[in-house]
Design brief:
Blueprint: H1 2-18, H2 22-39, H3 41-55, H4 61-81, H5 87-92, E1 94-97, H6 99-108, E2 112-116, H7 125-131, E3 136-140, H8 146-158, E4 161-165, H9 169-181, E5 185-189, E6 199-203, E7 206-210, H10 213-221, E8 225-232, E9 237-241, H11 253-273, H12 287-290
Parallel strand pairs: 1-9, 2-5, 2-8, 3-4, 3-5
Antiparallel strand pairs: 6-7, 8-9
Helix pairs in contact: 1-4, 2-4, 3-4, 9-10, 10-11
């Protein structure tokens, strides 16, 4: 019953927000994020810790943490506001830097890997990809509430995103390799190692682990690995595509995965520093956070 009520509540929120203008939905989301910041002490503390780590001394992480939660609120409001009918509006409000590199990769026929941090609204890249004939495949966690999992999967399919549910690492890798073989783009959020069994790298001056999936896929398939981020702008969105990373030569497979993941971490640092308060990572991400 609890799962059914949660599902119905989300459907109601979608119905209400979907009737609003994009500007109004964003404003409500930012206010919701501000309230969320007041009442969720755990995420507030993580946002402060991450902002202090990124911004360095002399900056106020408390004010930055408020902006993080406001931006996160905008993301959730847009996630409920958006549907396939909004794609033309999103395209009109989106600018893309580096699209030529993706088009060139599409034309080689090897597929491509898009490694993203949790920046802005990373799902708005889907209409840009679809209109340029680049099918998008993304991995999502299976939620405890199966109704919500199925519903979000269907929504993203309508929006142009094929979702692969994380049912097991070997099965997921097989499906992603198959997608790359079919010249699709595999989009992977790459700045958080949920299970804590990833590759050790230095990230913003402190050692942590990041998921090995992007580097492993690049080595197995020879598909180009692009660091990518999407950002909020006042009226819409901006997407940035960094040049594809060079695959390291020499050493064992695990050593090459580690070196490539470290290169990706350095690229994600640059992408995050373009708009630090749009980085929606408010969970422990370094060992010191968990301690």
């Amino acid at each position: 019953m609890r799962h059914l009520l949660a599902y119905l509540a989300l459907r109601l929120a979608l119905g209400i927000l979907g009737l609003l203008s994009a500007k109004t939905a964003r404003r409500l989301g930012r206010w919701g994020g501000k309230i969320w910041h007041l009442f969720d002490g755990g995420r507030r503390e993580m946002a402060r810790r991450h902002m202090a780590r990124i911004l360095g001394p002399g900056k106020d992480p408390r004010a930055a943490a408020v902006e993080v939660m406001e931006s996160y609120g905008r993301y959730f409001a847009e996630a409920l506001w958006v549907d396939a009918s909004k794609a033309p509006e999103i395209l009109d409000a989106t600018e893309v830097h580096g699209l030529d590199a993706l088009l060139a990769a599409r034309d080689t026929g090897k597929g491509m890997i898009l490694a993203l941090p949790h920046m802005g609204n990373w799902e708005v890249a889907a209409p840009v990809a679809v209109i340029n004939h680049i099918p998008i495949v993304a991995v999502a966690e299976r939620l405890a509430n199966e109704r919500i999992t199925d519903w979000f999967t269907e929504l993203r399919a309508e929006f142009g995103i094929e979702v692969v549910l994380a049912t097991g690492r070997a099965e997921v890798m097989r499906r992603l390799e198959s997608a790359l073989h079919d010249n699709k783009a595999v989009a992977l959020l790459s700045d958080r190692d949920i299970k804590g069994r990833g590759v050790e790298v230095e990230f913003f001056g402190e050692m942590t682990t990041l998921p090995p999936g992007p580097a492993t896929l690049a080595l197995r398939t020879n598909a180009p690995l692009f660091p990518v981020a999407t950002y909020f702008t006042e009226q819409g969105y901006r997407a940035t595509v960094r040049p594809a990373l060079e695959v390291p030569e020499g050493g064992s497979r695990s050593e090459r995965v580690q070196r490539l993941t470290q290169e990706l971490a350095a690229e994600m640092e640059k992408l995050i520093m373009e708009a630090p308060t749009q980085w929606h990572l408010v969970q422990p991400n370094w060992p010191s956070d968990r301690d």
